[in-house]
Design goal:
Layout: E1 3-4, H1 7-17, E2 23-25, E3 30-32, H2 37-45, E4 53-61, E5 66-74, E6 79-87, E7 94-96, H3 105-116, E8 119-121, H4 144-147
Parallel strand pairs: 1-6, 3-6, 7-8
Antiparallel strand pairs: 2-3, 4-5, 5-6
Domain NADH:ubiquinone oxidoreductase 30kDa subunit: 34-145
Pfam families: Complex1_30kDa
Protein name: Proton-translocating NADH-quinone oxidoreductase, C subunit
Amino acid sequence: MTAVLDYQQLKADLSKELPGIEIQAESSFLLALPEDIHHVCQYLVSRPLQMDYLTNLTAADYPEYIEIIFHLNSIVNNTAMTLKTRLTDKTNPKMASVVDIWRGAELQEREIYDLFGVVFENHIGLKRIFLWEGFEGYPLRKDFANGH
């Protein structure tokens, strides 16, 4: 059985370890600002949490923002958690890549780029994975059907 994290305690730990980082704790996830996400991920993969396995990286399009969702696991500690960030600039959504932290993010970031238009800065090879390079638009964005 996977251990359940106390997100309020995790928020307190993060605030102490990473001063200046704004983070919110909900009942089932942490929410970090896009500009802080890389630092938060670096902390989560280190001791004591050791969130060493990125199970899934995905996105969801909401009217006000694009949400990026990380599902993380610690194989050593048998714990799982969810981390989110929200990109409010939907005309130019971008955030730092986490491929340098979890190599498994490479294809998942490319998928989000291809289908939602999120640019992952410092990605090792950001290009479309399903659609061709000349394809216009991002099919999983809510505004795609109206514009095409």
